## 1
Amino acid sequence: MNFEYAAAPESRSVVKIDPVYGHFINGKWVSGSAHFNTINPATEEVLSSIALGSAADVDTAVKAARNAFDKSWSKLSGRERGKYLFRIARIMQERAREFAVLETLDNGKPIRESRDVDVPLSAAHFFYHAGWADKLEYAGVDTTTAPHGVVGQIIPWNFPLLMLAWKVAPALATGNTVVLKPAETTSLTALLFAQVCQQAGLPDGVVNIVTGDGSTGSAIVNHPGIDKIAFTGSTEVGKLIARAVAPTNKSLTLELGGKGANIVFGDAAIDETVEGIVNGIFFNQGHVCCAGSRLILQESVADEVLEKLKRRMDKIRVGDPLDKNTDLGAINSAEQLAKIRELTAAGEAEGAGRWSANCALPTNGFWFAPTIFTGVTQAHRIAREEIFGPVLSVLTFRTPAEAIEKANNTPFGLSAGIWSEKGSNILWATQQLRAGVIWANTFNKFDPASPFGGYKESGWGREGGRHGLSAYLKGSAK
Ligand code: NDP
């Protein structure tokens, strides 16, 4: 007998979306001169019209941030700054449902994830950094130096609120002021966060949010009044930013792409491993920089793992992101869907074997069925390039040395996973892998206290933990 889940949609009545939004500059809403639409990627419904920030808007925001830094924020003690951060964290918790529904509407991710991962982790980042604000001398960072001053922050669309929290919380805790640009397709939770700043009584100009596209981001990067740039996004844009910042005195942290290896040794607990593989690649539709997008299986267990994985993938529920039963939501944009289609077509053309879960996809919006490719070689584009979608490339190995060789054979170095019953295997492999974050017998676990960042083309610097704090002070970690 086959049981079906009844639909359990979360109500969208908890959110109020304005038809038009301006920028949030110096504690006030400032009208934009041009606008673009933001849509719900699950339905293509237009949600609102968002201001397209110009270089002049960025300039106004930078001046407001400088003024706030000079006149109020840098004069406050760490204890006073911490109080504001605690207040923001509590308000985010109080308004958690509103944030979760809005994030799901604007991004397409399942409510289960926005409600249970994005929003609680965002609040946790503010709590964590609130705690550090008056204890920086115990954080192992060089507190004889000062905050940078005005920080320009540019964030992507895959975790809109969480990436804002990763950037804004440490910046404020260490005494910087902020000009932040959310991604074009996902501005709404950043604009709700601006309301939280007002509600928390944050001094005007400490947080400024200028919405817009790549040109707005570029105006932030190139503004002479900015002291530090913090960017999360593609390696391509990260390289452009590194070139723009190189001849200046600006500090820079970059959190870029990845092609994480998830290595399964023959002695792994197979059922748990299959759950971990699913979480590693299908969490957040695979729009995750540290996704376990290359599965590297020991040959002795490859057939068993693949058979169980396919059976499990057929049970993944794809559909309405507001339904609490949904596992896999919508692809964030038509552009991203086109990119996933291009790379999966290249996978087939280059000779890898494609298998997709048997699921019905909605007719409106942007959707892609969970897919795996077997018989992938290291030369294939799907083994080398970031697909940033629910697509897993499967490779195999015979010896542990071969697994490490394949795992490290990438221009990226953000994340990796190891599945094995043996601690000695795990410790040996972690020492060989060139990845900033390595999970053992789990995947995609995040904590504000744990530094996150990459090797090679995955970026510079760390976010989170004590290491992340030091990136917002002129001195480096002791
Ligand atoms: P981008 O790197 O283009 O976007 C990230 C942020 O940078 C956005 O806010 C974007 O604005 C902004 N931006 C774009 N161009 C510039 C510029 N010249 N100067 C300053 N800021 C700029 O990523 P995409 O959204 O285009 O995604 C492309 C690919 O990047 C994805 O397919 C995926 O592979 C990868 N990616 C990786 C992420 C990660 O976390 N590692 C996150 C997102 C994407 P706007 O949104 O308005 O374009």
## 2
Amino acid sequence: MDRDSWVSNVGFVLAAVGSAAGLGNIWRFPWLTAENGGSAFLVMYLLLVIGVGVPGLLAELVLGRRGRQTPIGALRTLIGSRWGTPLGAFNVITTVVMLSFYSVVGGWILRYTLLAPTGAYFAQPQQYFRHASHGLPAVGFHLLFLTIVAIIVYFGVSRGIERVSKIMLPAVVVLLGGLAIWTATQPNTAAGYAFYLDFDGNYLATHFFDVLGPAAGQALFTLSLGAGAMLTYASYLDEDVSLPRDTLVIAISNTVIGVLAGLVVLPLLFSQGISPGQGGPGALFVALATAFGSLPGGALVATVFFFTVLLAAVTSGISLLETPVATLVDNYGMSRRRATLLMTLVIAVTGSGLALAGPMFRFVSGPVVDVMLTIGLFAFLAIVGWILRQDAVAEFQRGAGRLRGFATPWVLAVSWVLPVVVMFLLTTTLASLASLSLATVMRVAIAVFATLICRTAVTRTTHDDAGYSNR
Ligand code: TRP
């Protein structure tokens, strides 16, 4: 069967940046930055994007292009064992779970965009958000958001996703840039810029490990790793495209979008005397609404701001829906039309459930998603670093030009460093779920130990000659 593919490499890159740049950049990033010491978090985050995010993204793209299929088929072919099916299925379920909550938040954003011109939520932001964020109104806007995403996916990779990304992503950058400039003209923003941009070495030294966890988590989340969405996008890619170059472009563009969002959100909050970082992501809706409510031209700026977030959320949502849809097409020979309809119905129901049940929503959007993404990414790293090795290096080098030389350090990082970092994040999430307060040293020790056990188990079960020894 003929698979759809990207018309151009630029189209792929824009779609991948579209997947990466979403609520994570404009919502989660400023809020995490605010919670974790501002500039200290920014620096740590940038280092982790380079050291962990970039090699991780490369691993997922390598799997996608080498496997030339959606997660189930790709992993089954690549590891040559039946384990590929449950692993790939786990990815597909992750995207469904993610989109269920993502689409609910997308619905909030849609509502805030449509109602911004009327200033509906400026007067009583707190009550308004409480009313809008769950219950039947939230279900309605979730369904509306999901429909937009579904229509794009319905048209397929080249005619739907690529075309839309080529318009929406540049629009996000231009609008965010405009908003950042507007913000700079507002009074009383100096404290916000200082908090965000004046590097505070002292804070970092005293809070190093407190900042490390959230910064590493954000570096992986923002690049859409561990769900098989990037893998799926890469499966539509040409053989001669340089994966390392594309990875760098994707990571840099995505980071620019996150940093720009911080340049809008943080100074705005400070200018209103609102202390950011308290009360989690919901509070940001409230705080921003308060800020927009008291600024001149606030209704217009709020409209532009939420519209920008909406575009970013849609381009992430399409990669989340594309993964299960394309899996049904690849593995069950379903038509794209039917597959889109079916998956949209499923997520309509699961998302509505989350929109109605507040505690469930918080549980799924927080720890459940974190755990699923880290397990998914750990599996990708294990496959690339422990099983494929030389095949992965070959895929890295195909079309890579001068960047070929980075293949060896990359594969070493993927097999020895990244799995421990990801396992550390998993340990941290699981420990806090179990209300265990483990010291950092303890969590590091568990992470190293668990990684070694997994490594032994994986290398024992793969008897084939794929595991060329590297030393
Ligand atoms: N990167 C997206 C954002 O920043 C969110 C995301 C995380 C995601 N994991 C994903 C999107 C997997 C698609 C697939 O908003």
